[in-house]
Write a structure and sequence with these properties.
By secondary structure, this protein is an alpha+beta fold. The chain contains 3 helices and 11 strands, in the order βββββαβαβββββα.
Length: 162
């Protein structure tokens, strides 16, 4: 999906259309109260909303940390800007944020999303490297860290605290 924007006296600029959230799957754990949503590109994303309890800066932190990790060839889920419609929020009772003992609907519009990675194939024999579970054989004690440990450590190092 693309759209074309014509600027005065210049070549057309092709802009990728934003990814649209289409369906709520479930709430995720964590302080930002993120949710797993399916999008129009066929992928699922862990989505953090503008009015999350950890502040709007968490979205910028996530995007910055993810893009920097990619530049350093650290494996991280694909970060995206995902558009969540007001209709989806209104029609999905679970898309609420707990703030001060109240249930507040999340804000619609541009949100931060990271592609939900279930498994990644890492060799020709199709052995599966699970990124979302801790591998008992890969622990800090024996000198091997699961891939998601690197991403989490990297994220904590570069995020702006405020």
């Amino acid at each position: 999906m693309t759209s074309t924007l014509q600027l005065a006296s210049s070549q057309p600029l092709v802009v990728a259309s934003p990814i649209q959230a289409e369906q709520h799957i479930r709430r995720m754990r964590g302080g930002a109260q993120s949710h797993l949503l399916q999008a129009n590109d066929g992928h699922c994303y862990v989505v953090k909303f503008m009015n999350n309890p950890q502040d709007v800066r968490v979205l910028a932190n996530e995007m910055l940390a993810s893009r920097l990790a990619q530049r350093l060839s650290i494996p991280v889920p694909e970060p995206v800007v995902i558009d969540v419609s007001s209709w989806l929020i209104e029609q999905t009772e679970e898309l609420r944020c707990e703030m001060g003992g109240e249930q507040v609907p999340f804000t619609s519009g541009a949100c931060f999303g990271s592609r939900y990675v279930i498994q990644v194939r890492h060799d020709v024999r199709s052995t599966t490297l699970r990124l979302l579970t801790t591998d008992i054989a890969s622990t800090p004690e024996n000198g091997h860290f699961p891939t998601h440990h690197y991403a989490a450590s990297f994220h904590e190092t570069v995020c702006i605290k405020g």
